[in-house]
Amino acid sequence: MSENQNIIILGMHRSGTSLVAGILFRFGIFMGKNFLGIHASNPFGHFEDQNVIDLNDQILAAAGGSWKDPPGSEAILNQADKFRKEIISLIAAMPSGTWGWKDPRLSITIELFLPYLHNPVFIVCQREPLLIVDSLYRRSQIDRKQGLRLTDIYQKRIEYVLEKYPDHRRMFVSHKEICSDPGAVIRQIITFLRLEIPPKKYRAARRFVMPKFRVHIAGEIIQKSVSTKAALLNILKIIKSVFSQT
């Protein structure tokens, strides 16, 4: 790795942020040590540090909202002094060198963290809004009208931050493209981050993508299973079918 970077993954919930975080994790990039657990809607993991989630939830609550009822940008920025010590402490706990964070809430709180990050770069996950809304409804039973509103808020906040801080490098990752040509997108991420990734880790990242999307294709079956055990059995069958073809 040619330079130390703080890699921040931005994107609405259900836009592919866990997928990108999982790729970085398989590159050997530190993504946190207290990961949020797996779920039937995300059976391969979120690669999301619970400490980051907790702090973001506290910030949003103090600003009068939550991840699914986002406060206004000004209300969030008004929390800067209140949470300065917690933000600095959280960043100080990260290892030296390159590391990454993934929490969709960062899409609306990132301005509070930027003054304390070292060489921050953004990977912005993009997905068709109606697909995000459908996925949100299946996972969290969020009304589709509310889902569209949420998606619009997150996307506009991300656009605002990117425009306000043009000097921070960024790349965009399309959910559709990583589904159709994962190898190409993984190579683009490697190039953007200026990483030197050995073939073994590249293959691990590619293998991570392929079964994950077989699960997404069968997501309705998995999430409608009558029990967690049934869901996990379906997941294992899908993974087995993928690796039997490689």
Kindly describe this structure.
- The protein is α/β, with parallel strands linked by helices.
- The chain has one domain (6-198): P-loop containing nucleotide triphosphate hydrolases (Rossmann fold), CATH 3.40.50.300.
- 57% of the residues lie in helices and 9% in strands.
- Strands 2-1-3-4 form a four-stranded parallel β-sheet.
- The two termini are 29 Å apart.
- Residues 217-226 and 241-246 have low confidence and may be disordered.
Highlighted features:
57% helix, four-stranded parallel beta sheet, disordered C terminus, Rossmann fold, globular, 4 strands, 246 residues, 12 helices, alpha/beta, 9% strand
Topology summary:
Blueprint: E1 6-10, H1 17-27, H2 50-62, H3 73-77, H4 80-92, E2 99-102, H5 106-113, E3 120-126, H6 129-140, H7 144-164, E4 170-174, H8 175-180, H9 182-193, H10 199-217, H11 219-223, H12 228-243
Helix pairs in contact: 1-10, 2-4, 5-7, 6-7, 9-10, 10-12
